[in-house]
Design goal:
single chain; 484 residues; alpha+beta; 16% strand; elongated; disordered C terminus
Length: 484
């Protein structure tokens, strides 16, 4: 959660900086509108995306992760380690989620209340069709504002025809271009991702860009720029309505007045659009989670044995019968936590080695009989020491990414502070999927053996490399006859 928060804020900050310094002064209003909306969604979703990277060894995969080699990644890693340690030491996890839910609920209720106020102001009022929108005639001297296709206007001003056509054109542009949809989308994101304060800057920029668009629609008609600017200044002291509505009386600033006379340079605008198109995939690669498939190397111990050639005729019928009888006699049915039956084969290492030697000499047809009974037989490679690099070892301390099993015991990531990278003799990394991720704050399980533990268990592991497992059940009498 903390890693996601850091990455999301970094991404939204970088994208808003691009808007502020590169796009804001350009009169490409529709592009800026959709850029701001897409930038918010992009910064909130990209840290949740998992990208499959080309296959490589586990060591190279972790070192080559771009998040560890650029400024963005360094900021995120350092902040994650500090913030996560403080968070876990201070509050239980459920309190953080409770706080998040309470704040989000309050903000959602506020937005709902504001919508209710607008809809109630429409109830019982006279509605007059106006081009593609509808005029809602209100009581009192309220400012003109719009919400979706409804334009709210004082009834007295409408009957006296004292509302300038520029104001109606302005509000009609808000209605036609569905600016209320942008506002509601922004309010929803702020409510659900309230922990990102930069979204408030996005909301302000989006609202101002809406006014640029509506002003541009007015100036596309017969109204002159100077005349319209004076009208805007006359409305400066008018009361502003609800934050969900679009209003002609949106605060007037020098930027809004200056945008009306901004010149358009198509080449510069095109170059900036190309820059944005190149920036987004770079940020996506830098801030998303990356998964790597691992290729076995000379130091990886836990890999299936290589396929061995078998004699064409395979083993004798008596050896096949003995193989099945031994498995059946040493299989025990056990109920697991979910109430299902698992089958455990309990054999001594010498017996496992003997059965594996028989299995190696079987023909393909005989091995197919073994597979049909849902029996799996394989032998692991001889374990070989392979220490991680210093960069890999430091990266393993990230609690949001790795769950650590040290010498076959689950330990906190901070336990690694007691060791150096050269103290590690062997490691195995596996990604968690589906139900295995439930209730866990990490995405990878990392099994680590120290040099002392590796040496202590070496002989036992070398002599006990054969693994025989089964899913189905059969009795010795059910062992298949030769040729069946």
């Amino acid at each position: 959660m903390v890693s996601y928060l850091i990455k999301s804020i970094i991404c939204s900050g970088l994208l808003f900086a691009v808007y502020h310094f590169i796009l804001k002064r350009e009169k490409m209003l529709q592009f800026n509108r959709f850029y701001l909306l897409a930038a918010m969604a992009f910064s909130l979703l990209v840290p949740l995306v998992t990208i499959e990277m080309p296959s490589q060894t586990a060591s190279q995969a972790i070192i080559d992760n771009p998040v560890n080699h650029n400024i963005v990644g360094t900021m995120a890693d350092n902040a994650v380690q500090r913030a996560t340690a403080q968070e876990r030491a201070a509050l239980p996890a459920y309190l953080s989620w409770l706080l998040y839910g309470l704040v989000a609920a309050v903000l959602l209720m506020r937005t709902g209340f504001q919508m209710l106020v607008i809809l109630r102001s429409k109830s019982g009022r006279r509605v007059v069709p106006f081009e593609t929108a509808q005029l809602v005639l209100t009581q009192g001297d309220t400012p003109v504002y719009s919400f979706f296709k409804f334009i709210f206007i004082p009834q007295e001003a409408f009957e006296n025809q004292s509302v300038p056509k520029e104001i109606l054109t302005h509000e009609l542009a808000h209605a036609r271009q569905m600016h209320s949809l942008d506002i509601l989308f922004t309010e929803l994101l702020i409510a659900l991702w309230w922990f990102n304060p930069l979204l408030l800057l996005y909301r302000r920029a989006i609202r101002l860009n809406h006014e640029y668009l509506a002003d541009d629609a007015v100036l596309a008609g017969p109204t002159g720029v100077k005349e319209y600017q004076l009208m805007l200044l006359d409305s400066l002291l008018a009361q502003h309505g609800t934050v969900l509505a679009s209003s002609f009386n949106y605060p007037v600033t020098k930027k809004r007045l200056a945008m009306m006379t901004t010149n358009i340079n198509r080449r510069i605008q095109f170059a900036k659009k190309v820059f944005i198109a190149l920036l987004l995939p770079v940020l996506a690669l830098a801030l998303s989670e990356k998964t790597y498939s691992q290729q076995p190397d000379s130091g990886k111990a836990f890999s299936p044995d290589r396929k061995v050639e078998t004699a064409h005729d395979g083993v004798s019928e008596a050896e096949m019968q003995d193989f099945f009888a031994t498995i059946g006699k040493n299989t025990r049915a056990v109920k697991n936590r979910k109430g299902r039956t698992d089958f455990h084969i309990e054999l001594s290492p010498p017996e496992e080695n003997r059965l594996y030697a028989v299995y190696e000499r079987m023909s393909d047809a005989q091995k197919a009989q073994i597979k049909a009974k849902e029996i799996s037989v394989f032998r692991m490679d001889i374990p070989v020491k392979k220490a991680p690099t210093p960069e890999m070892f430091e990266n393993w301390k990230r609690m949001d990414l790795f769950g650590i099993w040290l010498n076959n015991k689950h330990v906190p990531n901070s336990q690694l502070n007691k060791y150096k990278y050269s103290d590690i003799a062997e490691y195995d990394l596996s990604k968690l999927y589906g139900a295995a991720l439930k209730g866990r704050g990490y995405k990878y399980q990392l099994d680590i053996l120290t040099n002392d533990y590796f040496d202590k268990t070496y002989d036992e592991r070398v002599n006990n490399r054969v693994i025989i497992t089964r899913i189905g059940w059969f009795t010795p009498k059910e062992a298949p006859k030769k040729g069946k």
